[in-house]
Write a structure and sequence with these properties.
Blueprint (H helix, E strand, L loop, with lengths): L1 E6 L7 H8 L3 E6 L8 H14 L3 E5 L3 H9 L3 E6 L17 E5 L2 H9 L5 E3 L17 E6 L17 H15 L7 H4 L2 H7 L15 H27 L4 E4 L9 E5 L5 H8 L1 E6 L11 H8 L4 E4 L4 H4 L7 E3 L2 H13 L1 H18 L2 H15 L1
Parallel strand pairs: 1-2, 1-3, 3-4, 4-5, 5-6, 7-8, 7-10, 8-9, 10-11, 11-12
Length: 379
């Protein structure tokens, strides 16, 4: 198959491209900045490349409506493998285009789309990179967290005014969500009356090119990201009261024992850090309802020890307690940090098990074969 792989971010892992080529497909890569749901310049550029090279399929990480339009107009297929959440483009009208093969890593989200009668989506967990080369010499960190604090990019903190009673209710449901892992309860707690009240003060409705419910928009873009900010800062502060933790982020948190290390590049530098940290902490956005996020796969791929919050699909893809360790709350997180910092052999064994699990069961070769099998069955 002749494939046009559209790169849109410096953070993309090209292992998918390498595996497509290894399995006999011809792949051409192009870099594009995709910012809007419609872009006639991008459409013309891609149509010219497709016609010139007789492209049969477009490929991207994440889903872009404009690329679905191009694929439909050019009579080729569009393969999108989603790793981000929230991703509101999934709620665009173009999701139902027959050219689409959209692979979602979150099973509950996949099931919700299927209930809506959308037949262009499939469930596919993310993959780990078997091509990672790490040179483990000595540990450089005891505890590491890599990720956004969602302080500057959560819309909730940008709301200029909400009545105290309404704000109190929203804060109460975020606190309720903090106590529950494995189910995203916030949309259920946003009644129509609450959403109507919110809309008196801020605009949350998307335009006619989207079919998403306002509850999903507000829950995912506003409350889930604000909750991530609350949880991550609270977690880091709690850890710092007893241990030194190294924070790699575009935002700083100034506290004793928090070492703000700045941004780390996605790729070999990040993988090396995972491998040379005794404990790597993962905290999943709550709008990821059941899926295993990319950070977990990255840590394990690098042979790092992963201490993560619970997600329903973790037990389907890994042996919890042998491949990685799950924490239930901040107190449990502290207890497990204390335990695994001093049990070196067990920690190293678990990290090795996790890497082997990814290499054997969650690699790109298997994922690409699955994708191509789905396509061959429908064509």
């Amino acid at each position: 198959m002749k494939i046009l792989f559209v790169k849109w971010s410096e953070y993309e892992n090209l292992s998918w491209v390498k595996e497509l080529k290894k399995q006999g497909h011809t792949v051409i890569c192009v870099n594009l900045m995709i910012c809007t749901i419609e872009d006639q310049q991008i459409e013309r550029k891609l149509q010219n490349i497709i016609e010139k090279n007789q492209i049969e399929a477009l490929c991207t990480y994440n889903f872009f409506p404009v690329l679905s339009v191009v694929a439909s107009n050019c009579n080729c297929i569009y393969i999108a493998w989603v790793f981000d959440s929230p991703l509101l483009h999934l709620y665009s009208n173009q999701i139902i285009n027959s050219c689409n093969y959209i692979f979602l890593f979150d099973k509950k989200q996949y099931q919700e789309f299927k209930k809506e009668g959308i037949n262009t989506v499939y469930h596919l967990p993310l993959a780990g990179d078997e091509n990672i080369i790490v040179n483990h010499e000595n540990y450089i960190h005891d505890i590491t967290f890599i990720g956004s604090l969602y302080r500057g990019n959560n819309f909730y903190d940008q709301i200029r005014f909400l009545p105290q009673q309404l704000k109190g209710y929203l804060e109460a449901i975020m606190e309720a969500q903090r106590r529950i892992y494995g189910y995203f309860i916030i949309p259920d707690l946003l009644t129509d009356d609450i959403i109507n009240d919110v809309k008196r003060y801020i605009k949350i409705s998307l335009d006619s090119q989207y079919w998403v419910d306002d509850k999903i928009v507000f829950a995912s873009l506003f409350l889930a990201k604000k909750l991530a900010n609350i949880e991550r800062e609270s977690m880091l502060v709690t850890i710092s009261k007893k241990y030194k933790i190294n924070l790699y982020s575009n935002e700083e948190l100034i506290r004793n024992n928090i070492n703000n290390c700045g941004v780390i590049s996605y790729g070999n530098e990040m993988y090396q850090l995972f491998n040379q940290s005794k404990i790597n902490i993962n905290s999943t956005l709550r709008c990821i309802q059941s899926g295993v996020n990319l950070r977990t796969m990255d840590i394990l791929s690098a042979g790092g020890f992963c201490l993560t919050n619970y997600q329903e699909e973790l037990s389907e893809q890994f042996d919890i307690g042998k491949d990685l360790i799950v924490y239930e709350n901040e107190n449990d997180l502290l207890s497990k940090i204390e335990y695994y910092l001093v049990h070196d052999d067990l920690r190293k064994e678990i990290a090795n098990n996790g890497r082997n699990r990814v290499l054997n069961e969650h690699n790109y070769a298997q994922r690409v074969k699955y994708i191509m099998n789905i396509i061959s069955l429908k064509e």
